[in-house]
Amino acid sequence: MRQLPSLNMLRVFEEVARHRSFSQAALGLNVTQGAVSRQIKQLEDYLGAALFIRTPQGLSLTETGLALSPHLAQAFDHIERALQAVRVPNLRQRLRILAPPTWATRWLSAHLRVFCQRYPDISLSVSHQAHHDSLADVDCHIRFGVEGSTHCNSQLLVMERHIAVASAELFENGLPPDLRHFPLLHILHEGKRLRVWENWLAAVGRNDVDAEQGLEFSTLDQVIHTALAGGGLAVIDRQMIEKELANGSLLPITPMEVIGPYGYWLEVAKDKQGLSKVRLFTQWLGLVSKP
């Protein structure tokens, strides 16, 4: 029988040695800093030697720690490669994403080819609806709102950049349509109108336009299609209509752009953060969503 300490002790040590930080290791392992400290102390007791010392520059490895660290890193690399070599693809490699429908259609779908080429062993399942009994199966939740959730790991991907637009056919001799003479198109979120028109009108100093009048829709895609058909004027996140702005089918009514207060947040339950497929998607999404 092999005389080895707990594999969890070794994993904790490898994480601390890599980050040179107890707090960063705790974050990566989804445990408390106290739990990390206890595991390191137990491993030091087993070895009979200190592994880390604190210096004015931060945490450093002792001579024993420096000797142990590369061997453990290589050992974990070997284990990971061995498991990957024999693992049979199954549903555990399916990444389930819950996302707003328009964001998924207009933003995510345009970037997915790069992710799929980079990580061919991860199958994606993207949905905009989840029943109560299926929420536990969701790996990553892209949520629209004004702030992140506190019950999970939440990070801001991007803030909306609102501009008022109209169909090109509503412009006459290069002049934009009068805001008072066309219906305003409104987006509903959780049964309530988003105050994008009120925010935009306040930013341009217009108090002669009734922000309450107009038509309301349950999805942003419906608003975009109605605006394209000339059915009204809309305030839309320009990142959702890059194609229409580029081909001139939708034109800005003024250059004014209002940042926020709404944005898209990536949220991951604490018990999902350690999954490699989740980490890879999170890292990739953070890079491609930067303006």
Word description of this protein:
α5 links the parallel β3 and β4. The mean pLDDT is about 85. The relative contact order is 0.13. The protein has helices spanning about 5-20, 20-30, 35-45, 65-85, 100-120, 195-205, 220-230, 240-245, 275-290, and strands spanning about 50-55, 60, 95-100, 125, 140-145, 155-165, 185-190, 190-195, 215, 235, 250, 260-270. The chain is an alpha/beta fold and about 290 residues long. The chain folds into two domains: about 5-85, Winged helix-like DNA-binding domain superfamily/Winged helix DNA-binding domain (Arc Repressor Mutant, subunit A); about 90-290, 3-Layer(aba) Sandwich (D-Maltodextrin-Binding Protein, domain 2), CATH 3.40.190.290. The chain is elongated and about 80 Å long.
The residue-averaged pLDDT reads 85
Q: Which structural class matches the secondary elements?
A: alpha/beta
Total domain modules: 2
Mind telling me the C-alpha Rg? 26 Å
Instruction: Tell me roughly what share of residues is in helical segments.
Output: 25-40%
Order of helices and strands: HHHEEHEHEEEEEHEHEHEEH
Provide a compact summary of the structure:
This protein is α/β, with parallel strands linked by helices. It is 40% helix and 24% strand.
Secondary structure: elements and pairs:
Layout: H1 7-19, H2 22-29, H3 33-47, E1 52-55, E2 58-61, H4 63-86, E3 94-98, H5 101-118, E4 123-127, E5 140-145, E6 153-167, E7 184-189, E8 192-193, H6 196-204, E9 215-217, H7 220-228, E10 233-237, H8 242-247, E11 250-252, E12 258-268, H9 276-288
Parallel strand pairs: 3-4, 3-5, 7-9, 7-10
Antiparallel strand pairs: 1-2, 5-12, 6-10, 6-11, 6-12, 7-8
InterPro entries: LysR-type_TF_proteobact-type (IPR058163), LysR_HTH_N (IPR000847), LysR_subst-bd (IPR005119), WH-like_DNA-bd_sf (IPR036388), WH_DNA-bd_sf (IPR036390)
Keywords: DNA-binding, Transcription, Transcription regulation
Domain HTH lysR-type: 5-62
